[in-house]
Amino acid sequence: PRCVFFYHLLLQVSLASAENIFKINITPEEAQQFLNSAQLRGVNEIEYAPKTGENPLPEARNEKGEFVYMGRVIEHPEDYVEEHYDAHQYHGQDGLGQYVYGYKDWNQGKNEKRDEAGTVSGSYKYVQPHGRDFVAKYYADRTGFHVEDNRPAHLKQPATKTPAVLKAEEEHFKLWGELAAAAGHNPDPYAAEYQTGEGRYEPSEEETREYVHEEKPYVPGPEETGEPKGFFYAFDYNVPLLRNKAEREELERLRAINNKDE
C-alpha cells in the first residue's frame, strides 16, 4: 500500500509539472491513473497558454530583398513582434472506453473526457474578434446533448412574414396565374390533370422491391484481439506567433472592456 501511495504521488507530481509524458501499451488500470490525474493539467479549468517572451522579427529576406517571416512578405517589420507561448496538449485512453484529451494555445483551449458510464463532458474557450472570451460547457449522456455558454440570452420569436415578403408572394402568384392562363394550363401545379395521364411517374420494379440489408459477419483482425491496452501522453511545446503591435494593443483594450463581468 505504501508503494502504491508513493506511485500515485509521483504520478500526480509528474502531471502537475512541465515534464513530458509518453506511455503506450499500458494496462487499463495504469492508464486510468493517468486519466484521473489529468485534471491536475487543467482538465477542469480552461486556460490559455502562458506567454514566455517576445522578440523583434528575425532578419530574413528573399531574392528580391523583401523582408519575409515564415514565407510572408512583411512591408514594415518594425510594426510586428514575434511572441512565444508555452502550449500544451494531452490525450489518454484506458482501452475500455474511457478517455481524456485537451489542449491550450495562446487564444483557445479545450478539455474533454468520457467516463466508464459512457458520459462525455467537456468545455472549451476562445477569444472572439471583439475580445470577449467565449466559454462553453457541455455533456452528452442517455438524455442527449446539453450545453451552456456565456452568450447573452435572446428570446426566440416565431418567424413571421414581413410586408415585403407578403407583397412578393402576391405578385409571384399573380404572375404565375397570368402565365399559366396564357399557356392554356391550369395554374394549380397540384391539379388532377398533372397527376394522371401521359408523363405520370410510375416507380420501377426495383424501386418497389422490399429492401433486405445484407452484412457480412464481423471478424476481428489479429491486432484487435488480446488484452485491452491503454496509452497516455502529455507535452508542452513552443508556439511562435506573429503579432501586429497596433492590432495587439487594440485586442487587449477590447479584452479589458468585454471581460469585466467574467
UniProtKB/TrEMBL annotation:
Report the Pfam families cross-referenced here: Chitin_bind_4
> Which Gene Ontology MF annotations are present?
structural constituent of chitin-based larval cuticle
Q: Region labeled Disordered — which residues?
A: 197-225
Q: Does the keyword Signal apply?
A: yes
Give Gene Ontology CC terms: chitin-based extracellular matrix
UniProt keyword annotation of GTP-binding present: no
User: In the record, which residues are listed under signal peptide?
Assistant: 1-18
Q: Which residues form a coiled coil?
A: none
Q: Which UniProt keywords apply?
A: Cuticle, Signal
- PANTHER family linked to this entry: CUTICLE PROTEIN, PUPAL CUTICLE PROTEIN EDG-84A-LIKE PROTEIN
Put simply, this protein is called: Cuticle protein 7
Q: Which organism is it from?
A: Drosophila rubida
